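ok new one. same drill as before - structure tokens go in, u give me an amino acid for every spot. 510 of them this time. try not to just spam alanines like last time pls lmao
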């Protein structure tokens, strides 16, 4: 039996909703909860995929506000998600859909926002922090939203840690409804390091006539893979990408959004698809992810919505070693250093010293201010970008000090206690045939042992393991049915007895 997860309100389990009967968020939150959200309040609803967050908002919540004749502003981070929602919600006199970016543009260029909204729903609210890694504008929409004191503000996310930390750092009160993430639809979690695995996995998906989504940080890499598998794939990136947006098949993408599935085997996409847009397709059983940000990994996996308990997915995540993570951390430390410089110098002195210089890191931004009817620009810190940097540094530190590094950290976030490493699995598979071919054949000479060591290719900290003890220890932990033994023996060579310390592979049975 699948048990319903408990609902937590501000960290405390709400006993009203806990039972052993399968259920959805719409059964846990009722009209009494909705009515308790007063103008000016900030409410965060955090629940993973499969708990009905989207259904609750787009049906129960919006239906309630329609009946109350409330004016609702529904904000989303991606144009694709807006298109998908528009088809679901339809035209409405009381509900307006918009992207955060369109709101930011209106604020930046001084366009008046005259309408009074009763309700502001912020979907995928982690956008404010995550997208600040490459956008200088996210604080504009964030500040405007939290400043709407006459509106009920509802924030939706499956990854709440960073936005909650930002609210707390800015002393902005909020109420949290939290349903623990359930990843029961993940059949296997697998890691890989080599970029060649993209093509290996793509070939296997096509061969099996299945479907897979590849979430790639690099639009260039996504497009290159699409070109290689053009007859079997679809390519998607941000419409604002001036280089690659023109390469998208707009009609096929529109059909994909409308039907929540794609007709080909492979979809190569950038983070333009990592939030909001969903797929309901039992043939989609592989998700491949190359993104460092753990929140982006979780969001990407969440694009697949299981149709039932048998509709599962195999997840492949590119592993990041501590050296690469340390490099990413150094860049963020530069950003924090810039923040400290601005704070130490003070806004007035910093403005005087850097009047015409641009901040390539994006942490110090020009903000328009009106004085005597004239527009001037004043340099200010971008709070969401500063928050992103400090929070991400803390996450990187957690990863680098985790016993199993990035792999263990991601598995822990997904609440999974098992995972495999693709290269290790394939290495074991290739070794099985080789080991079987040399069973009970003693290795006597240095040359024979050297060839064996090279073929085993067992490494610790990237160094080839050459000792008997390290190779035997690896075989014991590999679960392969082989062991390495060592013994003294001799051979007659040129009528003389020569002694050897032999190594020999033997079959092992428990």
């Amino acid at each position: 039996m699948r048990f319903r997860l408990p609902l937590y309100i501000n960290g405390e389990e709400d006993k009203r909703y806990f039972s052993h009967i399968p259920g959805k968020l719409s059964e846990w939150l009722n009209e009494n909860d909705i009515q308790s959200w007063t103008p000016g309040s900030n409410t965060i609803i955090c629940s993973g995929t499969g708990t009905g967050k989207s259904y609750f908002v787009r049906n129960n919540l919006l239906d309630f506000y329609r009946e109350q004749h409330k004016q609702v502003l529904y904000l989303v981070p991606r144009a694709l998600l807006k298109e998908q929602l528009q088809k679901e919600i339809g035209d409405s006199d009381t509900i307006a859909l918009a992207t955060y970016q369109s709101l930011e543009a209106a604020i930046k260029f001084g366009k008046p926002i005259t309408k009074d909204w009763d309700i502001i729903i912020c979907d995928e609210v982690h956008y404010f922090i995550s997208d600040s890694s490459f956008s200088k504008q996210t604080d504009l929409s964030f500040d405007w939203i939290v400043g709407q004191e006459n509106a009920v503000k509802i924030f939706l996310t499956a990854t709440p840690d960073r936005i909650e930390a930002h609210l707390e750092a800015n002393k902005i009160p909020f109420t949290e409804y939290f349903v623990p993430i359930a990843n029961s639809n993940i059949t296997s979690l697998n890691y890989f390091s080599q970029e060649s695995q993209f093509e290996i996995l793509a070939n296997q998906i096509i061969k099996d006539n299945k479907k897979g989504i590849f979430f790639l940080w690099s639009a260039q890499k996504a497009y290159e893979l699409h070109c290689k598998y053009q007859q079997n794939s679809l390519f998607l990136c941000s419409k604002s990408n001036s280089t690659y947006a023109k390469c998208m098949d707009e009609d096929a993408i529109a059909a994909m959004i409308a039907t929540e599935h794609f007709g080909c085997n492979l979809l190569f996409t950038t983070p333009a698809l990592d939030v909001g847009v969903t797929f309901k397709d039992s043939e989609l059983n592989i998700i491949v992810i190359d993104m460092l940000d753990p929140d982006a990994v979780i969001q990407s996996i969440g694009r697949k919505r299981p149709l039932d308990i048998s509709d599962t997915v195999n997840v492949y995540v590119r592993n990041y070693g501590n050296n690469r993570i340390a490099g990413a951390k150094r860049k963020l430390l530069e950003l924090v250093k810039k923040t400290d410089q601005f704070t130490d110098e003070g806004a007035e002195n910093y403005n005087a010293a850097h009047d015409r210089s641009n901040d390539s890191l994006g942490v110090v931004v020009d903000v328009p201010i009106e004085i005597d009817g004239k527009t001037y620009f004043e340099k200010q810190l971008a709070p969401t970008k500063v928050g992103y940097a400090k929070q991400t540094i803390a996450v990187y530190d957690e990863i680098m000090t985790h016993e199993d590094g990035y792999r263990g950290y991601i598995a822990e976030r997904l609440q999974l206690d098992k995972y495999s490493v693709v290269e290790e699995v394939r290495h074991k598979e290739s070794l099985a045939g080789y080991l079987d071919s040399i069973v009970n054949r003693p290795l006597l000479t240095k040359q024979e042992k050297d060839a064996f060591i090279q073929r085993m290719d067992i490494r610790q900290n990237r160094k080839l393991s050459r000792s008997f003890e390290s190779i035997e220890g690896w075989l014991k932990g590999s679960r392969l049915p082989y062991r390495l033994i060592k013994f003294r023996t001799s051979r007659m060579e040129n009528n003389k007895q020569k002694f050897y310390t032999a190594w020999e592979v033997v079959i092992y049975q428990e």
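DSSP finds 19 helices and 21 strands in the chain. and btw The first helix runs from residue 25 to 28.
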